[in-house]
């Protein structure tokens, strides 16, 4: 009898539970956070809206695409940041930028869909190359694809403008709204992040998502039942690539530029760190990890200066923070939250049982 492969710590969703039911049973904390995000422009400064929250949501979308592959498919892929960077480059190449000798100056409503389509195709092809491997081999193949893309953009000046990349890539003006403004861009990012989250939740409970989780748990048994394991995994890469491509478009509009460093080895590994720290068991995990990453990256330098250490060591502080989180909780911050909730629930149950038996009476 074939042994089942080790599975990730993830709660398999109920097969008959739809998105509406999932949203309806969300706890009070979910709705408080949702309401807070909606009114955030009224209480937060432009710096916090764009540099912290919007940036965290963009990185969270890219990490969410990685979480979908790893959490539901058991596929640890490092190609997601590369897909986002490729989409960002295509927006600059097909659309408008300050590099007028290369950019084709297509209208945004043409450049963006073509960029997303080609980036999705790129992510799908990358997945097709690595889908028959597992574990460290998948990581190495996808990392090799990311490294190859980095050096291609670094050395190619005809299409990618080499080391300098593209700058002056501005968000569009649509429906009379300048989406590059602080509040419009925040809501644009929030809308796409919420949509990506909702779609991942829905797909995870759809027949495709359930079959993908079956291929994660026991691919041999799924193949014996008539499921095409390879096709499901390639489709998962394509779905994840769509999310990463949308995030790449938002990323180039946020940064107003794209360069080889956007898809370098460092950012590629950062996506894995964000997903793992946030937690691979729930779609909200990557967004939590991204927020922690952005906060540490933004304020670690000030913290080190405050305690009298050299500012160049801020990356050490970031790495130490992630190391502590992972050591205390292999399932990231989501795992810590779930354990605290479980401990609180058991404590309440014990108190209720004591009261029912009269143990709490004076």
From TrEMBL:
GO CC terms of this entry: plasma membrane
Stretches of the chain forming a coiled coil according to its record: none
Subcellular location: Cell membrane
Membrane topology of the entry: Multi-pass membrane protein
Taxonomic source organism: Bosea lupini
Phylogenetic classification of the source organism: Bacteria, Pseudomonadati, Pseudomonadota, Alphaproteobacteria, Hyphomicrobiales
Key words of the record: Cell membrane, Membrane, Transmembrane, Transmembrane helix
Keyword Transmembrane in annotation: yes
Pfam families: BPD_transp_2 (PF02653)
Matches recorded under CDD domains: TM_PBP1_LivM_like (cd06581)
One Gene Ontology term of the molecular function aspect: branched-chain amino acid transmembrane transporter activity
Residue stretches spanning the membrane: 22-40, 47-69, 75-94, 106-129, 135-152, 185-213, 234-254, 314-337
Name of the protein in question: Amino acid/amide ABC transporter membrane protein 2, HAAT family
